[in-house]
Specification:
The protein is mainly α. It contains 16 helices and no strands. The chain has a single domain, classed as Glycerol uptake facilitator protein (Up-down Bundle), CATH 1.20.1080.10. Helices cover 77% and strands 0% of the residues. Helix 11 packs across helix 14. The chain is globular, with a radius of gyration of 24 Å.
């Protein structure tokens, strides 16, 4: 027999929550029923709820089969190549027009919009989604699952961007002017990234992780935040390892740089910078703000079980 059924005067958990609910309702008593309903419908999810939504998405990704992850990552790699492709098209159309670099940078967003809207697997997105489960429940199993996903997705992304590089190298669209502009733009971009690939990769990883986190609270407005963040990334000339790998393959295939220069002088340092910015900085900060609440919730649940 429980304490409550035995006549224990201590209120139940539901009863202890009642005053808080009544207090909340009292704050809205001056509003009509319709207005109160609007207030509740438009409440912004708490940081802890956002954390849980992103964490659950990460768990879903970690549990996907190998080939599902691989094909999704390959598709994302090829589609992300549309970012430099769109930039080349805009640059050709604008020529030397005022603010041409600003509007050309807008094309950078295209690949990201399509990849994120299509729920394809992009390495820099997974730096926060796949890492949160390991942060929340640290153990060898979760760490290995996270590393497995990163390896599969990054490898698949590189295959996809390599296919994009072949597409440009052999001008499979039969648009020589655009292909030449993609090659020119890619050579300029890689030359810039190779000056400090790791340092330039950190803000790119941080911004993409912040984008993933913010989209949870921006239902119906996702395209605007995707465009805003990636447009700023392009104008800042920071190094996104997957888009950069598409540009790297383009200039590597036409002989501008060697494989050693591309892989060790750009790709690996930039990818590490993305990891530091996404998982090492943003994911840790995002988790730290809700960790005390999670621990308090677990302690409360343990106390109720003991009773």
């Amino acid at each position: 027999m429980t304490r409550e059924t035995a006549g224990d005067p201590r209120p139940s958990h539901a009863q202890t929550d009642q005053p808080e609910t009544e207090s909340s309702d009292a704050e809205l008593e001056d509003l009509s029923r319709q207005d109160r309903s609007l207030v509740r419908r438009n409440e912004v999810p708490s940081a802890r709820l956002v954390h849980e939504i992103v964490r659950q998405r990460g768990i879903e990704e970690l549990e996907r089969p190998f080939w599902s992850l691989t094909w999704s990552a390959i598709g994302a790699g090829f589609v992300i190549g549309l970012s430099p492709y769109a930039m080349a098209i805009i640059a050709l159309k604008l020529g030397d027009a005022p603010l041409a670099p600003v509007w050309t940078s807008l094309g950078y967003a295209l690949g990201f919009v399509l990849v994120i809207a299509g729920r394809m697997q992009l390495f820099t997105e997974s730096t926060v989604t796949a890492f949160l489960p390991a942060l929340t429940t640290p153990c060898v199993s979760n760490t290995l699952r996270t590393l497995r996903l990163w390896a599969i997705v990054f490898g698949g992304n590189l295959i996809g961007t390599f296919l994009f590089g072949l597409f440009i190298q052999f001008d499979l669209a039969h648009q020589a002017e655009i292909a030449a502009e993609v090659q020119h733009h890619s050579a300029m971009a890689i030359g810039h990234y190779m000056k400090a690939p790791f340092a330039l990769g950190i803000p790119a990883g941080f911004m993409l992780a912040a984008l993933v986190w913010s989209m949870t609270n921006l239902k119906g407005q996702e395209i605007f935040i995707i465009v805003a963040v990636t447009w700023m990334m392009a104008m800042a000339n920071i190094a996104h390892s997957v888009v950069g790998s598409a540009e790297m393959w383009v200039v590597m295939l036409n002989g501008t740089i060697t494989p050693t220069e591309g892989i060790f002088g750009f790709l690996l340092p930039a990818a590490l910078g993305n990891l530091v910015g996404g998982a090492g900085l943003f994911a840790f900060l995002a988790h730290a703000q809700v960790k005390p609440e999670i621990e308090a919730s677990h302690d409360g649940a343990a106390d109720r079980e003991e009773r």
